[in-house]
Design a protein that fits this description.
Elements (H helix, E strand, L loop, with lengths): L8 H20 L5 H29 L17 H16 L9 H8 L4 H10 L8 H15 L3 H10 L8 H14 L7 H7 L8 H13 L4 H10 L8 H15 L3 H7 L8 H14 L4 H10 L8 H12 L7 H5 L8 H15 L5 H5 L3 H21 L1
Length: about 400
Amino acid sequence: MQFPREPSTSQTFLLTILSQGCIIFIKLGRELTTLEIRDSLIPYLESLLKEHGNVLMDVVENFSESPVKEKSPSPVSSPPSTLNSKKLKAVSRVSKLGTVGEFPPLVLYLIELGMDLEQIKGITRRFPAFAYYSLERKIKPTVEFFLDLGIPKSDISTVLIKRPQLCGISLSENLIPMMAFLENLGVEKGQWAKVIYRFPALLTYSRQKVKATVDFLSEMGLSPESIGKVLTRFPNIISYSVEEKLRPTAEYFLSLGADVAVLLYRCPQTFGLSIEANLKPVTQFFLEKGYSTLEVATMASRYAALYTFSLAGNLVPKWEFFLTMEYTKPELVKFPQYFGYSLEERIKPRYARVKDCGVKLHLNQVLVVSEADFDTLVKKKMKKRLSKEGSK
C-alpha cells in the first residue's frame, strides 16, 4: 500500500495561503476584487514572511516554475548556502559582461540614473528578485511615473535603493490606487515627490496598516487635516507598530501630562524612539535638575523635538552652559527650544555679545531672531541703558 507523499514546504505554504484566502471569501460571501484580495492577504503574508522569510521567498521566486516529478521534499528552512547561492546568482546577473563587453541593459539604465555598480549589487544582495525585473515592463514605467510626479532624476536612484520592491508592483492595480487612498486620508497631492523620496516604502504597505495608523492618530485627537500633514511631512510613521510602538509611547507621555496630539503633530519621529533607552533617561535628566513632572511635560509639549536629542552630545553640555548664564530655571520651561540651537555657533557667541554690551534680554530674544535683528535689538537696549544712566 502506498501512502501519499508529505507535501513540500513550498506546497504547504501555498495551501496555507490559499486556505486563508478561502476564509476571507467565506466571511465576505462574495467575489473579491484584486485589491481586496491583496489588502486582505498582505498582513497575513507579512506575518509569514517574518516567521518563515527564507522559505516564503523561495516559494515566490519559484512559483512560476513547472513542478518536477518525484521531487524530494524541501527542508523546513532553506540552508544559508541556498540563500547565498541566490544572492550570488542575482549579483552575477547584474555584474556579468555580455559578449560585446557591456553590462546588461538593466545595469546600463540604472547607471544612467546615477547608480554605480556597487549600489546595484547592494540592491540585488538585499533583494535578489530585483535582478530579474523586466526593464521595459517594470523598471522603466515605474521610473517614468516617478519622474512625472516631479521626483528629480538625481533622486530616483535613492528611491530605488531604499525600496527596489516598488519596481515589482503594478502601477495601475497597486501604486496609483494606493496613492489615491492616501490622498483621501489627507496626503497632499502636490507633495508626492517629497513624500516618496522621504519614505518610498509608504506605497508598499497595506491599506489596513495605513488605516490602523490613521485611526490611532484620530483617536489621539488629531484632526483629519493634521493627520494629512503628518503623513505628508513624516510618512515614516506608518512603519511604526500601533500596538507595540505608538500606543505605549502615547501612554508614557500621557502619564507625564504632555499633550500627545501636539507631540504627534509637531514631532512624530519621537514616537519611534525607545521608551527605556531614549525617553525615560531624558525625563529623568530634567527631574534630577529640579524640574517637576508637569514642567517636563510642558517643555515637551512646547518643544516636541526635545526628546530626540542626545543626552551626552546635546542636553548635558547645553545645560552646563545654561548654569553659567544669568537665567533662572523656569526660563527653560518657557523656552525649551534653547536645546535646539548650536552651542558653539549660536548660544555662546550671542550670549557673549549680550554680556559685553551690558544689556539684558530674554533667552528667546537672544536666540530666535536673525543676526541683523539681534544686532538691532542689542543696540536698542544699549541706547536705552545709556539713556537711563545719563539721566541719573
